[in-house]
C-alpha cells in the first residue's frame, strides 16, 4: 500500500475485510478505506523498551498546497488576535462589557484558528488526538460566532436604554450563553459522531481530523453559523430603523450611529467571508473563492485593524501610556484630527474585570 504518509491505528478490529475503529469502548465503522495490519515497535522512552504492537496502517490524507497556504494565513491571524486580546486585557478602561466580550471573541477565534492550522499543516498519526483537536476547534469556532451574536445583542440593548443589570452580572449571562450553547452543540455532535449506525456522522477522528465533506459541514457547522449571521443582520437592520424613525437627542443619535457603524464592520468581518465560503460549497472551484478563503483565514489581522488601529479610544489609551515611543508625535497629530465619537457616547456598562 504505497503512501507518502501513514496513519497508525492501535485500537481496531477487522470485520469482513473492513476496518472498524474502537473509541471510548464503542465501535466506529466499518470504514471504507484501504488498510493493512502490521506489527510495529512502540518505544517506551522512560524504560528504554520497545513493545511490538499489532496496528492497522492506512494512508494519511495528503495535504493540499492550498491548504498549507491557508494554514500559514491562520497563524498570522492567531498572532494579531493574540495582540488584540493582550491590548484589551492590559488597560482597565478597555475592559468594559464590550471589551471583555471582544476579548472572549478574539480568544475563541485565536484558539480555533490555531487548532485548524495544526490540522492543516501537520500530518496526523493518532486518531484519538486527531478527534480531540477537531472537537476543540469546532467548540471554539462556534463559540466565536456566539460571542459575535452576544456583542450584537449588547449593542442593541445599549442603544435603547441603560442596562438593567450590572456589567459584571450581564457578562456572566453572556458568558453562559456564548460558552454554554457551543458546549451543548459539541457534546451532541460527539454523541452523534461516536454512536454506532449508518447515520450522517460528522466524521471527526474517523480517518479525518475535520469535516470530510461539505454535507457534514452544513449539517453541523454552517447551519449554526448561518442562523447567528442572520440574527446579527436582523439586529443591525432593526437598529438602523430606530435611528431613522425615532426622535432621539443629538447625543443619543451620535451614540447610535457609532454603535451601528461598529456593527457593520463586525458583521462584515464575522459574517461576509463565511457567507462566501458557504456559497462556494455549491459551485465549482475557482480562483475567486480561493482569494476569498485567504481573506477569511486572515480575518484576525482585519479584526486587529478594526478593533485597535481604527478605534480612537484604543489608540488614545496606548498613547497615554507612552507605548508608541518614537511614533508618539505622529499618533498625537492623528488623534487631534480624528473625531472620537465614543468619548461623546454615554457608556452604561463600563466596569473593570476586577472588583477593585
UniProtKB/TrEMBL annotation:
Lineage: superkingdom: Eukaryota
Keyword terms of this UniProt record: Membrane, Transmembrane, Transmembrane helix
GO CC annotations on file: membrane
Residue stretches spanning the membrane: 69-90, 102-123, 135-159, 171-192, 219-239, 260-280, 286-310
Entry keyword Transmembrane helix: yes
Subcellular location, record wording: Membrane
InterPro entries attached to this UniProt entry: GPCR_2-like_7TM, GPCR_2_secretin-like, GPCR_Mth-like
CDD domains assigned: 7tmB3_Methuselah-like
MF terms (GO), sorted A to Z: G protein-coupled receptor activity
PROSITE patterns for this protein: G_PROTEIN_RECEP_F2_4
Residue span(s) of domain G-protein coupled receptors family 2 profile: 66-311
Membrane topology field: Multi-pass membrane protein
Single biological process term from Gene Ontology: cell surface receptor signaling pathway
Span of the signal peptide: none
Name of the protein: G-protein coupled receptor Mth2-like
Source species of the chain: Bombyx mandarina
Amino acid at each position: 500500500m504505497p503512501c507518502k504518509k501513514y496513519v497508525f491505528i492501535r485500537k481496531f478490529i477487522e470485520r469482513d475485510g473492513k476496518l472498524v475503529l474502537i473509541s471510548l469502548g464503542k465501535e466506529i465503522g466499518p470504514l471504507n478505506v484501504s488498510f493493512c495490519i502490521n506489527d510495529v515497535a512502540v518505544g517506551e522512552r522512560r524504560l528504554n523498551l520497545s513493545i511490538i504492537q499489532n496496528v492497522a496502517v492506512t494512508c494519511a490524507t495528503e495535504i493540499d498546497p492550498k491548504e498549507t497556504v491557508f494554514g500559514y494565513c491562520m497563524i498570522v491571524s492567531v498572532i494579531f488576535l493574540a495582540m488584540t486580546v493582550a491590548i484589551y486585557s492590559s488597560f482597565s478602561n478597555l475592559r468594559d462589557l464590550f471589551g471583555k466580550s471582544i476579548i472572549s471573541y478574539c480568544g475563541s477565534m485565536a484558539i480555533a484558528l490555531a487548532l485548524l492550522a495544526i490540522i492543516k499543516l501537520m500530518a496526523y498519526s493518532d486518531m484519538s488526538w486527531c478527534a480531540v483537536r477537531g472537537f476543540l476547534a469546532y467548540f471554539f469556532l462556534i463559540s466565536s460566532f456566539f460571542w459575535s451574536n452576544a456583542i450584537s445583542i449588547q449593542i442593541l440593548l445599549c442603544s435603547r436604554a441603560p442596562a438593567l443589570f450590572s456589567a459584571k452580572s450581564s457578562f456572566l449571562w453572556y458568558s453562559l450563553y456564548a460558552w454554554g450553547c457551543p458546549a451543548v452543540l459539541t457534546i451532541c455532535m460527539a454523541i452523534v459522531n461516536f454512536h454506532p449506525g449508518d447515520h450522517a456522522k460528522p466524521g471527526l477522528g474517523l480517518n479525518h481530523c475535520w469535516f470530510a465533506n461539505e454535507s457534514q459541514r452544513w449539517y453541523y457547522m454552517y447551519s449554526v453559523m448561518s442562523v447567528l449571521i442572520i440574527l446579527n443582520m436582523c439586529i443591525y437592520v432593526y437598529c438602523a430603523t430606530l435611528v431613522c424613525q425615532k426622535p432621539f437627542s443629538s447625543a443619543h443619535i451620535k451614540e447610535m450611529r457609532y454603535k451601528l457603524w461598529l456593527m457593520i464592520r463586525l458583521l462584515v468581518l464575522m459574517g461576509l467571508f463565511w457567507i462566501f465560503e458557504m456559497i462556494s460549497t455549491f459551485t465549482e472551484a475557482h480562483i475567486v473563492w480561493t482569494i476569498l478563503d485567504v481573506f477569511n483565514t486572515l480575518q484576525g489581522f482585519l479584526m486587529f485593524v478594526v478593533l485597535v488601529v481604527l478605534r480612537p479610544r484604543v489608540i488614545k489609551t496606548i498613547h497615554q501610556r507612552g507605548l508608541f515611543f518614537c511614533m508618539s508625535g505622529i499618533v498625537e497629530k492623528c488623534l487631534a484630527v480624528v473625531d472620537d465619537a465614543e468619548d461623546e457616547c454615554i457608556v452604561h456598562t463600563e466596569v473593570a474585570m476586577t472588583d477593585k
